[in-house]
Amino acid sequence: MKRAAVLFFVALCAAGQQMPRYRWENFTTASGLPDNKVFSVAVDGARIWAGTDNGLGLYENGKWKVFRPEDGLAHRAVLSIAVDKKTRDVWIGTMGGLNRYSAGRFDRFTQLNSGLSNDVVYGVAVREDEVWAATAAGASRYNTRTGQWTLYNERNTPMYEIWTYGVSPGKDKVYFAVWGGGLLEYDVKTDRWKDYNDPDGETEIVLFKDQGLIHEITTSVSYMESDRVVWAATYFGASRYDGRNWRNFLEKDSGLPSNFLNQVKGVDGNRAWFSTDKGLAYYDGTNWAVYRPALDTGRPEMLVRDASGRVTPIAVESAPAHHYVYAVDFQGDDLWAATAQGLSHAKPGQPDLPGFSAAAKPAAPPPAQRVMEPYAGTPEDLRPFSKFTKPYYEHYTKLVEYNGAAREAPDPALAEIEEVRIGFLGPIENHPEQALGRKMLNGATLAVEEANRAGGYRGKPFRLMVHNDQAVWGSSSNEIVKMAYDDKVWGMLGSISGDSTHIALRVSLRAEVPMVNSAATDPTIPETIIPWYLTVLQDDRVQCYTLARRIYTDLGLQRVALLRVNDRYGRFGVVKFRDASRRLGHPVVIEQKYMPGDTDFARQLRVINDSRADAIVLWADAAPAAAILKQMRALGMKQRVFGGFRVLNDELLKTAGPAADGLEVVFPYDPARLEPGFRQRFEARFQAAQEAFASLAYDAMNILLDAVRRAGLNRGRIRDALTAVERYQGVTGAMTFDPNCKNIAPMFLATVRDGRVEYRRYSMEKPYARVGEDGVNFHGPAAADAPAGETAVVLFGPGADVDSNLPWGQATNELVKRMSDPRTLAVIATERKAAHLALQLANKFFLPVLALTDDRTLTSANIPWIFRLPAGTPLADALQCVKEAAARAGANRLRIRDALAGYSFTADSSSRSATACPAARFSSPPSP
Predict the structure, then answer these.
(1) Considering the entire predicted model, what is its pTM?
(2) CA distance readout (Å), 192 to 133, 163, 168, 776
(3) Computed over its alpha carbons, how large is the radius of gyration of the chain?
(4) pLDDT tops 50 at residue 909
(5) Most distant pair of Cα atoms in the chain: their distance
(6) Backbone phi and psi for residue 568, each to the nearest 5 degrees, phi listed first
(7) 228 alpha-carbon distance from chain centroid
(8) DSSP secondary structure string, 133-177?
(9) Which of 42, 439, 738, 781 is deepest in the core (most CB within 10 A)?
(10) Ramachandran assignment for 251, one of left (phi > 0), alpha (psi -120 to 50 degrees), beta (any other)
């Protein structure tokens, strides 16, 4: 055993010795660098080009030269750089177009004066006489010899998404990293494309370890032509593909310091460098090394992980400028790294030379970690592959992290600012959805006006910087860049379109601008793991799963058809409903599409009717939905109709009339429970009734403004304040935010009856447990009212009114005594173990129990007296639940049970705290 231990130690030391060691020299603005945030770096012989957030830097002969827009640069934010080795021209991708720097002059290419797909150029590369650009709206190829441009998008390539993020060419192949679309391979000789995507098709899991590309949100690609190997980086790990086999790397099973990768740069088919948000990692095919300032102390750190998984620190005296690394490039054996706090130059050797870097600032503390499993609280029977296997890895269960340097930026002096700018992006003119966009703008405007009447930000007024999200090629990305870099907003709200919101999200990642959303429901938006985003509207995943639970589990319908608009909203909106239908054993029988602007749906309806569907799910706006309902009834179709939240508004009721009777739609809140004061203020200000787009925008803007007031004028800290929001009581009701900062509160089911809409809270969880398909109700004897006088709610748990930590038997005896008292109306169990004990007794004493725990087995016990609130729910919330139930039902245990099962509750309209009992957090909705 001793000899084995010695041999292992020797092997470990050998691994540490053979991994490259560096002396790190760091350049910042004090050295002449244009800006400390460095997005890109490119080696050009003895010259080094650095793309920063405030200009292009050239390092030559020990000095820096800076280029900015006044020198001809397309935009001050430089995202990518490539050097043409033949001509020595330098190609520069910016937030405002593509530049060529040649013979001391800048040429500018934009989507208006060339064939560039979009002005936001994330990646650029040179292959012989061709320049390839990866942009926010497709890829472009420019032939420098002929001047010809070729555009690539979803029309002429297998791009599932058009947001290209990186490009890596070889002699025979060109590879693109596509955000949300995996990898694209272009064969130069055959002029054909091939795509590589996540084979399990589920963004939230890695089903098997080395099944294929690890995730479809691909951020970088590096093609090693000599070895025929492709390296791919994502925000969810890395992949290597040799033409036959895939190998995936996660933080849990490799030396990667983080799954969040900005870039991969291959050395050859076995070796690669990974730029992550927690350090720079090197892989030699067996061992790993990580170079960074330590996250907690800021001291230089090098960690080596050998093939067995053993990690050992190596003593070093210098490190890169920051642990958030955007990109690397090679200069012989030297290494250049672009980081969030400077450009770092690594020279091989040890010990460190005088003048090279020592300690950096330790990372600022992030918001407290929180975990929610499974993702979005999805019920087991709706989770992917839950009937067959447990995934190798699950994403989205932990709080989204931000590890950049934005928190370290100094706040501006309050005396030097006149206003605090907040961005707004929405379709307010020249757009098919402009009516919705204007309503959204009204809600945001009211929130800002009220905040200013309350004092604004420390006496400074908030100002809404309004930008139109036009239905014009490339315009949305340009408007978002203007907001971030010209308006210099501290945060932004937008938009309705999933396309525009995705583009805004990726700009916000580079520009580091907090972003809130109140209208886009595309489920892939919050699944990008970008840490600058919060949404108050339940996305299409929650909407679809809720509809599936209602249609298949409650109503027992089996043959369901889909009818959707043929645009991104419709295409992505129904994906999760199809998934849920299949998992519940009833695949969608047929799917029909119509084009935006269509008014005649007879063909689609006849096809659906011929399929013998007994229900139809609509993914549409209110106007086409009203026409569909009327045409259905005219054709004699009697199928039940369901829909997403955009189906329902007052116009639908007026237009569809009796044809809408029986329509059921998921809706984010109950308008009848809308804060009355808000309704009055809105109608007085705009002479129009409030509706969903206005009300939700009002809530989202208030969350953002509150974050600014709490955090100060620092985008990083504003982002932290948003991320820390777990519950919020808005005018639309109670919201619950998962670790991905999206509202997952159970939705309301809106049912049209006789021209009116009835709303009730509805969860995608099964009501209580399910035996077969029957809901659990209480059929026992009627309960007597409590005696006159004071009544009680028993608190049971560690250190509570009845202490569950009392010696064996004492806790049970005391609980029995208190539960048998007829004046006790309910029990609140403050943790899991106490809840299970209370549950057993509740069915004997016919007494409601509220359990503060995430243990779902409690509500699978087939007992109608148990309700569950998430672990960490404030005790005041639970007490308010019982108080409001008793106010509605009286001092009667059974009626309180029914009230808890069947009602939703709202807080005092004057309160902004989550001190109510929102049914959004119940696990036990009413039985159908």
Answers:
(1) 0.84
(2) 18, 19, 16, 58
(3) 29
(4) no
(5) 94
(6) -60, -40
(7) 34
(8) EEEBTEEEEEETTT--EEEESTTTS--SS--EEEEEE-SSEEEEE
(9) 439
(10) alpha
